[in-house]
Amino acid sequence: MSMHHSRLPVRLTAAPLVTAAAVLALAGPASAHVSVSSPDAAREGYGKVVFRVPTESDTADTTKLVVTLPADTPFLHLTAQPKPGWKVSMQEGTLPEPVEVDGTEITEAVRTVTWTAEGDGIAPGEFDEFALSGGPFPDADSVRFAAEQTYDDGEVVDWDQVQQGDEEPEKPAPTLTLLAASADAHGSGGHGAGADTDEASSASDDQGGSDTWSRVLSAAALAVAALALLGVVRQDRRRA
Asked: How far is it, in rounded angstroms, from Cα 231 to Cα 234?
């Protein structure tokens, strides 16, 4: 009996470990891609764009990243977040054809943003993030960028392949999915006073619900304590 019980925990934990390993194995290749995300980028709004760059090489450091912005949906305003250890530069260029953005027709816009390491860069097995802020974003489901990653051994990797069908390409272009447009989209990417008010109201509701639940638990605890005390008194009376 004792041997049977000693083996049971091992059998219970083995399956989750195997499952976790399988998930990590499946997630590994996708996580190694140069990717893009945003906490607030919405259609026709302004927001922050973050490029995550992992070093896939086992022997070389990533020392340069060049992001090419879409020419058909250029940004009217764009700034780069300063990053210690890296020099950032923006290159403007003429668009293939004039584009109207937020009621303004533009013929030139920032075409590329380049980050160059002033030190060692991103070592093997590590990643780093590079941020831009601007807009307005187009009224579309997503925005596709292109990225060029350079290693200190001279290797250059182009992340610019467009997915066709269900199969992901080997070097997919970083693609950002946009949030739905909000009433305050032109102000701050949907995070204006209205959003703050909604968040405050939601927080207040959550707090109110939490307080009510705390009162219920307190009342239940008091009831249990009272019943326990009553049981002790009855036992004492019977003994007497």
From this structure: 5
